[in-house]
Amino acid sequence: MAKNKTHRLGDLQLRIMKVLWERRGASVAEVLDALDDSDASLAYTTIATMLRKMEVRGLVSHRTEGRSFIYAPQVEERDVSRSMANHLVDRLFEGSLFDAVSHLLTTREVSRDELKQLEKLIADRKKKL
Questions:
Q1: Nearest to 71 by CA among 123, 121, 114, 32
Q2: Does any domain span residue 111?
Q3: CA–CA distance from 102 to each of 6, 70, 84, 85, 110 (Å)?
Q4: Under a CB-based contact definition with an 8 Å cutoff, are residues 25 and 17 in contact?
Q5: Which site from 1, 7, 50, 72 is most exposed, i.e. has the minimal number of CB atoms within 10 Å?
Q6: Kind and range of the H or E element at 79?
Q7: Same domain for 26 and 59?
């Protein structure tokens, strides 16, 4: 699977990838069924077209099973998450991790448990410096 590549996915592409990561492969109909709970306006042809475009970009591949194409992810979820998060920090916060974290801590609800986990991550990172 691809590494160190920039992945920019739109909302629908990301939702499709989440289905494929969870199932490790699915037909167009199965993807549509999984997404149908959240968006009844999606058409089979929309999903099929999006999967074909995603295949051209190397995000997914397909195999034939009977009369259906079964699509599988070709990029790891962690690689896409890393790439999209880095892109967000670079674009919105001019690369400043401090500004990104500060923004999140001041605009979102944070539990004591989450703060403890963040403090542990920071302490672990300090040990590596």
A1: 32
A2: yes
A3: 25, 42, 19, 15, 12
A4: no
A5: 1
A6: helix 77-93
A7: yes
Question: Which residue range is the domain that position 38 belongs to?
Answer: 11-77
Domain assignment present for 83: no
Report if residue 91 sits inside a domain: no
Amino acid at 5: K
3-state secondary structure of 13: helix
69 and 15 in a common domain: yes
Residue 1 has pLDDT above 70, yes or no: no
Task: Please give the average per-residue pLDDT across 118-126, as a whole number.
Answer: 95
DSSP string, 1-58: -B-S------HHHHHHHHHHHHHS-EEHHHHHHHHHTT-TT--HHHHHHHHHHHHHTT
Residue 61: strand pairing partners:
72
Per-residue DSSP letter, 75: B
